[in-house]
Amino acid sequence: xxxKRLMLVWVMILCLAVPAFACAAGESPSDPDMLLSGNGxxxxxxxxxxxxxxxxxFLSIIGKIREDGLLHGADFSPETCYNVTPERVTAETDIxxxxxxxxxxxxxxxxxxxxxxxxxxxxxxxxxxxxxxxxGDGQTDLLIASSWGxxxxxxxxxxxxxxxxxxxxxxxxxxxxLYDLCFSDTVITDPYEGNGxxxxxxxxxxxxxxxxxxxxxxxENRGSYGAIQLWMDVPVFRSTSxxxxxxxxxxxxxxxxxxxxxxxxPDHCSVFYEFRDxxxxxxxxDAWFGRERSDDRTxxxxxxxxxxxxxxxxxIWTVVSDDGLALDYTQYETLIDxxxxxx
Length: 343
Fold this sequence. Notes:
Layout: H1 3-17, H2 32-35, E1 45-48, H3 55-67, E2 81-83, H4 87-92, E3 96-100, E4 106-110, E5 113-116, E6 125-132, E7 141-148, E8 154-161, E9 166-173, E10 180-189, E11 197-209, E12 217-231, E13 234-239, E14 245-252, H5 256-261, E15 270-275, E16 280-286, E17 294-304, E18 307-310, E19 314-321, E20 324-328, E21 336-341
Antiparallel strand pairs: 1-12, 2-3, 3-4, 4-5, 6-7, 7-8, 8-9, 10-11, 11-12, 12-13, 14-15, 14-21, 15-16, 16-17, 17-18, 18-19, 19-20, 20-21
């Protein structure tokens, strides 16, 4: 083996040995379109900010905690501590989030106290946060996306309750070990009762450019992963993958004509939705119950918990169960289409 080939082999080995949370160093994306696609679509790149703002105050408090031995055995060099608070958190709360670049240890400074906000050993630690007063107590809580796990990478979603100062893990996965999660631009507000947030989208991202010192870190968007939504006043995670595939109309509950026509099975009705993993859908309607009518269209869709948003405008309540897919356009009032999967 020549020297050149030997060096190439070692480079490949070193690349494979890099932990899943490590990123390639490089210049930040400069094209604004690369950072935000707009119109409610998922961002191509997600940025985790990094600065030294407020670090001294944080260190003065966490230093007292270290003296009590609560952080014994960990390396928390002051020069590796950075403020990584997302802009939307800074704009809506006085909570500040700090992360140590060498260890990924991540903490929040809340009301003059320091709280460990996620598990971090062997992973990216803190990745993203979204401010949301989900329980309506007047105090803004935080949804937190993070990752940890040496050898077995785990992406984790949790909620930090500001009133109780407690953290509840909502979702922990090992299925997509090379990826992290962040909160998308897709937020659903209650279309029937006020404008309160009822669901926040979650995207799958992969770190591609790590910031050096106080430079931001960039994650490339890999698509919608699901959403955290309120269910019986409690935040829960719902996966996007439930809706993928082709569905055929089975019944429409407000139309006895449709039910009668479909009595012998779904083959009597050629109305289909196909939801693809690239965020597009195809709708096909042919021979609408004996009438001369045909309709084909494509568009974009986003799944945010139990909410389906078509073409960034029409918001539809959806339920996916063992019985099929139900599209409720008025949330339990009159018009519910039931679809069965096409195998």
